[in-house]
């Protein structure tokens, strides 16, 4: 396991009820774990807890543990993190891709290099090499290699999203979180990114939130089905889709509700 | 019948637009005609003491420039605070107060600076005038900076944080950069606004007939002099006031249009 | 760096509060002599800068005024060597007259000129907003919109110049009376607040969801009816807010009004008579005023600031009730 979520509950600042209740979820190394469920089930909330991006907004409360494997191989609870530099370290280990592509207002090269520069990489040759690696790894290199100094805003939606993936991959995180990464893209770009994810998992563990069940069944190794803040069922993807043990899961999969 | 009322009302509405345009045209044409006809060869080369406007134009720009050097950084940084760092009541309070200050009477600000600077230092000064203009500028810049920053989608900030950047880096490298054009326009429009102001300068820097770069005494101001000249009985003075008015308006409109042009390109 | 920047930005933001409080405190301090002397009656007293005899005092009774001031005055008289006056005042340190300042006329002038501006500008501004938002095709709306915003950018002193030499004669031809008058000032003030009201109203109207308008059209409503029954009610809050805000701005307007209201400290006998407003009183008298007179001007400034602040706050409260930011 790269991450182990234990008895995790989460309540938003302005809410009276918890949005997540007692979640127990393992994220397996070098596998793709999909979080599926109807709107409002808490899958994005759970994903966003994994890199503690909730902490940008004060007042949220949580309970339980989220254990992340550190360099030495043991598991540390990331909910215990309080210091600024620890947060930065966490996010260098656990990256995130958002639903809307978020290219920074700078050149393509600078975008991909951004995380590296923050991590302290200064040597120009090294940066160039890592940027090329990252862009190749996100299947974008051929399309942009001749215009690395152009603004990232000129890329298409699908390209921008792959740019964001390259940017996140450049710092070699252990775990990458994808929050509905293709819902704003056309089917061809979606397909390209799905292929990319399957390639990426060789080196990086992946957790992906998707409201597209077919996507989950296409690319993920494990699937977690959530409903109204509960983790209803977690298992290998084939099992969830072909032989779910919970009736709720089956109802969702077969489209009886959505 | 309904169609008739509809026609009538829409006609009135179009008429209103024409009235609005008519006023604009009337004023601009008046300025142009009266202004140009009062132009003379030495207008830009001599100072008021000799019937020219040079010292006044330079003086007004200097006052506005100094006010900008003070007001723009303070306003921008304050705007960044209330949008990016501020949490809850205090930031909201500052935002509201700043908004109110934008519409506050400029003559009151002049009186304020008079009381706190002119009286203790024993006299009017260009410095006092610049401070008055700066006080007017700060809320305007806060306002536009805050607005422009609010247009930057939150996902962009989250993406920066998700890469491990500190809040400060996210603000400087990503957020401000994204809002750069809008903020610049806001700054230009603020400058255009204060360079045309008269009331705050009336008893703080007054004006001067001579060319001066000395901020410690009365400082030449185009706007204050227009007021003085217009009140003088001699026709020559009033002609000069028209020339000055024309030049002032051209200056203000050019800066204004430049600001709009910049955003239009990035629109 | 991170912490430092945060602290600096907090300090800059707090500057707004400091300045605002500073203005209140400074104005209050500077008005104190006038407040002490005239109290709240200042607001309703139409007498400005007139010497009146202090009633009911014998020559050698001490009048309840500033002793130091009267001592100074006596000194001045002595040094000019006017024997006769010294003889008369020899018996006492009394002042037999005092100068009264009452702010009623400028306050009324401010309020009335603003009211005229509002009445004049409101229909035209609404009309322009409707034109920009609903009638004009996109590119015309864009250009006319810019023109209207340029009108807003014109410095107020320019409105004064144009108003005095070109607009005022026409008004007095149409309505009789004086060229520089309450009416002229109010109307030009109206032209000045016109663009702001039109722009904000247009923006408010544009927030009406298209589907709402389409539903009304689909039922067979005319454009006017859609504007009247759907758009205006929907954007009501923004519109009212813009009106109140325009009012707040007009209250503090100085230069245009200074050219056009006449600057006469008397209640206007008709709408076409000259009078004075608070900003104009300040603009024209600050230079020469000292002592109690200057304090009275500060008192006026304080009153103006309080009124503007209140009106603008009410407008903001209105905006906050609606859909903004």
Largest beta-sheet characterization of chain A: 6 strands, mixed
- DSSP strand count of chain A: 10
Order of helices and strands of chain A: EEEHEEHEHHHHEHEHEEHH
- Largest interface: which pair? B-C, 83 and 87 residues
Shape of chain B: globular
Write the layout of secondary structure elements.
The complex is a heterotrimer of chains A (258), B (267) and C (325).
Chain A: E1 3-11, E2 20-27, E3 32-36, H1 43-49, E4 61-69, E5 75-77, H2 84-93, E6 94-97, H3 108-118, H4 124-137, H5 141-144, H6 157-170, E7 175-179, H7 187-200, E8 205-209, H8 213-219, E9 222-227, E10 230-236, H9 237-242, H10 247-253
Parallel strand pairs in A: 3-8, 3-9, 6-7, 7-8
Antiparallel strand pairs in A: 1-2, 1-4, 4-5, 9-10
Chain B: H1 2-37, H2 54-85, H3 89-102, H4 106-121, H5 126-150, H6 154-162, H7 167-195, H8 199-202, H9 222-231, H10 235-266
Chain C: H1 2-38, E1 48-53, H2 67-80, H3 83-89, E2 97-101, H4 104-135, H5 138-153, H6 156-175, H7 182-206, H8 210-218, H9 223-251, H10 255-260, H11 278-285, H12 292-321
Antiparallel strand pairs in C: 1-2
Overview of the molecule:
Chain A is built from ten helices and ten strands. Chain A has helices at residues 43-49, 84-93, 108-118, 124-137, 141-144, 157-170, 187-200, 213-219, 237-242, 247-253; strands at 3-11, 20-27, 32-36, 61-69, 75-77, 94-97, 175-179, 205-209, 222-227, 230-236. In chain A, a hairpin with a 5-residue loop joins strand 4 and strand 5 (75-77). The model of chain A has no long low-confidence stretch (mean pLDDT 91). Helices cover 78% and strands 0% of the residues of chain B. Chain B has ten helices and no strands. Chain B has helices at residues 2-37, 54-85, 89-102, 106-121, 126-150, 154-162, 167-195, 199-202, 222-231, 235-266. In chain B, helix 2 packs parallel to helix 5, helix 5 crosses helix 7 and helix 6 (154-162) runs antiparallel to helix 7 (167-195). Chain B starts with a helix and ends with a helix. The model of chain B has no long low-confidence stretch (mean pLDDT 91). With 325 residues, chain C is mainly α. Helices cover 72% and strands 3% of the residues of chain C. Chain C contains twelve helices and two strands, in the order αβααβααααααααα. Chain C has helices at 2-38, 67-80, 83-89, 104-135, 138-153, 156-175, 182-206, 210-218, 223-251, 255-260, 278-285, 292-321, and strands at residues 48-53, 97-101. Chain C has a two-stranded antiparallel sheet. In chain C, helix 4 (104-135) crosses helix 11. The model of chain C is unreliable at 59-92 (pLDDT under 50). The interface between B and C is large, with 83 and 87 residues.
């Amino acid at each position: 396991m790269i991450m182990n979520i234990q008895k995790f509950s989460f309540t938003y600042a302005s809410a009276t009820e918890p949005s997540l209740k007692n979640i127990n979820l393992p994220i397996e190394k070098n596998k793709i774990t999909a979080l599926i469920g109807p709107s409002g089930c808490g899958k994005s909330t759970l994903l966003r807890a994994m890199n503690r991006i909730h902490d940008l907004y004060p007042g949220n409360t949580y309970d339980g543990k989220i254990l992340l494997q550190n360099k030495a191989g043991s598991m540390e609870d990331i909910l215990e993190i309080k210091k600024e530099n620890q947060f930065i370290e966490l996010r260098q280990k656990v990256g995130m891709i958002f639903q809307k592509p978020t290219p920074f207002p700078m050149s393509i090269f600078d975008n991909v290099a951004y995380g590296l520069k923050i991590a302290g990489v200064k040597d120009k040759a090294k940066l160039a090499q890592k940027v090329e690696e990252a862009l190749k790894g996100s299947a974008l290199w051929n399309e942009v290699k001749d215009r690395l100094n152009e603004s990232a805003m000129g890329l298409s939606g699908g390209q921008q999203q792959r740019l964001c993936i390259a940017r996140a991959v450049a710092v070699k995180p252990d775990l990458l979180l994808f929050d509905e990464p293709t819902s704003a893209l056309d089917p061809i770009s979606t397909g390209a990114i799905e292929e990319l994810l399957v390639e990426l998992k060789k080196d990086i563990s992946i957790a992906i939130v998707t409201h597209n069940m077919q996507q989950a069944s296409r690319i993920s190794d494990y699937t977690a089905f959530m409903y109204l803040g509960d983790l209803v069922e977690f298992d290998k993807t084939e099992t969830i889709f072909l032989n779910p043990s919970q009736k709720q899961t089956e109802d969702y999969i077969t489209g009886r509700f959505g | 019948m309904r169609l008739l009322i509809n026609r009538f009302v829409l006609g009135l509405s179009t008429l209103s637009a024409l009235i609005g345009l008519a006023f604009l045209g009337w004023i601009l044409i008046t300025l142009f005609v009266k202004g140009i006809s009062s132009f003379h060869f030495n207008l830009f080369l001599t100072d008021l003491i000799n019937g020219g406007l040079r010292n006044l134009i330079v003086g007004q720009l200097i006052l506005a420039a100094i006010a900008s050097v003070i007001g723009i950084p303070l306003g921008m940084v304050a705007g960044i605070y209330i949008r990016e760092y501020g949490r809850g009541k205090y930031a909201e309070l500052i935002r509201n107060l700043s908004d109110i200050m934008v519409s506050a009477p400029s003559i009151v600000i002049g009186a304020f600076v008079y009381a706190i600077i002119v009286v203790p230092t024993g006299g009017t000064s260009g410095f006092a005038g610049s401070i008055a203009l700066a006080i007017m500028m700060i809320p305007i810049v806060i306002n536009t900076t805050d607005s422009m920053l609010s247009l930057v989608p939150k996902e962009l900030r989250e993406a920066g944080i998700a890469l491990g950047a500190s809040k400060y880096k996210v603000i400087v490298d990503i957020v401000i950069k994204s809002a750069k054009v809008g903020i610049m326009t806001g700054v230009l429009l603020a400058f255009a606004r204060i360079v045309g102001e008269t009331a705050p300068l009336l008893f703080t820097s007054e004006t001067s007939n001579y060319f001066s770069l000395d901020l410690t005494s009365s400082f030449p101001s185009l706007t204050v002099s227009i007021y003085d000249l217009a009140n003088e009985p001699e026709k020559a003075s009033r002609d000069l006031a028209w020339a000055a008015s024309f030049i002032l308006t051209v200056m203000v409109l050019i800066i204004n249009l430049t600001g709009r042009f910049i955003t239009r390109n990035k629109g | 760096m991170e912490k430092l920047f945060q602290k600096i930005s907090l300090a800059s933001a707090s500057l707004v509060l400091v300045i605002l409080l500073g203005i209140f405190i400074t104005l209050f301090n500077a008005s104190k002599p006038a407040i002490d002397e005239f109290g709240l009656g200042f607001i309703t007293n139409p007498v400005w800068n007139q010497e009146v005899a202090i009633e009911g005092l014998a020559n050698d009774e001490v009048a309840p005024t500033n002793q130091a001031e009267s001592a100074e005055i006596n000194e001045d008289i002595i040094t000019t060597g006017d024997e006769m006056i010294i003889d008369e005042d020899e018996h006492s340190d009394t002042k037999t007259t005092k100068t009264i300042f009452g702010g009623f006329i400028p306050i009324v002038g401010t309020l009335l000129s603003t009211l005229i501006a509002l009445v004049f500008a409101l229909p035209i501004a609404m009309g322009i907003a409707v034109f920009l938002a609903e009638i004009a095709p996109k590119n015309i709306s864009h250009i006319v919109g810019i023109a209207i915003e340029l009108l807003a950018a014109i410095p107020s002193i320019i409105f004064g110049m144009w108003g005095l030499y070109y607009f005022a004669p026409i008004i007095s031809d149409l309505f009789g009376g004086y060229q520089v008058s309450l009416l002229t000032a109010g109307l030009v003030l109206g032209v000045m607040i016109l663009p702001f009201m039109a722009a904000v109203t247009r923006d408010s109207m544009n927030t009406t969801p298209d589907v709402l308008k389409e539903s009304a059209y689909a039922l067979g409503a005319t454009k006017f009816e859609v504007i009247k029954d759907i758009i205006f009610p929907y954007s009501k809050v923004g519109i009212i807010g813009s009106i109140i805000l325009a009012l707040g701005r007009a209250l503090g307007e100085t230069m245009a009004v200074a050219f056009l209201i006449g600057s006469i400290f008397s209640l206007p006998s008709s709408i076409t008579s000259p009078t004075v407003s608070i900003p104009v009183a300040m603009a024209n008298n600050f230079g020469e005023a000292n002592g109690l007179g200057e304090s009275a001007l500060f008192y006026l400034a304080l009153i103006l600031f309080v009124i503007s602040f209140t009106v603008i706050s009410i407008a903001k409260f209105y905006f906050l009730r609606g859909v903004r930011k």
